[in-house]
Amino acid sequence: MSDPTAHHAGITVSNLDRAVAFYTDVFDLEVVADFSVGGEAFADAVDVAGASASFAHLAADGIRVELVEYDPEGEPMPARSLDRPGATHLGLSVDDVDAFHGDLADDVETLSGPRTTESGTTILFVRDPDGNLIEVLDA
Fold first, then answer.
1. C-alpha pair distances (Å), 75 with each of 43, 98, 110
2. Domains of the chain by range and CATH?
3. DSSP letters of 60-121?
4. Model confidence pLDDT, tens digit, residues 53-77
5. Boundaries of each VOC domain copy (predicted)?
C-alpha cells in the first residue's frame, strides 16, 4: 500500500457561487478547478441515489478546499449523507485506489467499492470509527 498524502478538505454547501465568493473574498483563495460530476458511478461512490454535483477546488497553501453543491433534484438527504450542507470529508490520495481497497480490513466501513467517475477519477469513501468520511482517490 502506498503512503497517503493530503489532497483536499471537502465541504458541502447549499450555493456554490455564494460559497466560492466567500472563500475567494474573505480568505483570498484562488479557484484552481471547477467541474461537475454525476452518473451512476458517482452516485454509488457517495451513496446518494441519483447524485450529481458541481465542484470548485480552491488553493489553500498546499491543500485544496473542495466546495461541493449537490443537485437538489436527488433523493432526500439522509442525516449522515455527503449531500447535506455542512457535510465534510477528508481527501487522501494513494497510488492505486483498487489496491488500497483490497488491503482494507473487513471491519472498515465503505460507502461502495472503488468507482471511476465521469471526470475519470477513481474514488472510494470509507468511514473512520466515529463515522467521519474519508475520500480515497487516485494520486
1. 11, 28, 20
2. 5-73+85-138 (3.10.180.10)
3. ETTEEEEEEEE-TTSSPPPTT-TTSTT-EEEEEEES-HHHHHHHS-TTS-BSSS-EE-TTS-
4. 999 999 988 889 999 999 866 565 6
5. 5-139
Phi first, then psi: what are they for 99, rounded to 5°?
-65, -40
- Could you give the CA distance from residue 90 to residue 127 in angstroms, rounded to a whole number? 10
Beta carbons of 89 and 123 less than 8 angstroms apart:
no
DSSP, collapsed to helix, strand or coil, labels residue 30 as strand
User: Over the stretch 5-46, which tens digit does the pLDDT of each residue have?
Assistant: 888 999 888 889 999 998 898 778 899 999 999 999 999 999
Q: Report the C-alpha gap between 118 and 82 in whole angstroms.
A: 18
Q: What is the dihedral of CA 27, 23, 31, 42, to 10 degrees?
A: 140
Q: Cell 450542507 maps to which residue?
A: 85
Handedness of CA 13, 3, 38, 128 (dihedral sign): negative
The backbone torsions φ and ψ at residue 44, rounded to the nearest 5 degrees and listed phi first, read -65, -45
Distance CA 25, CA 90 (A): 24
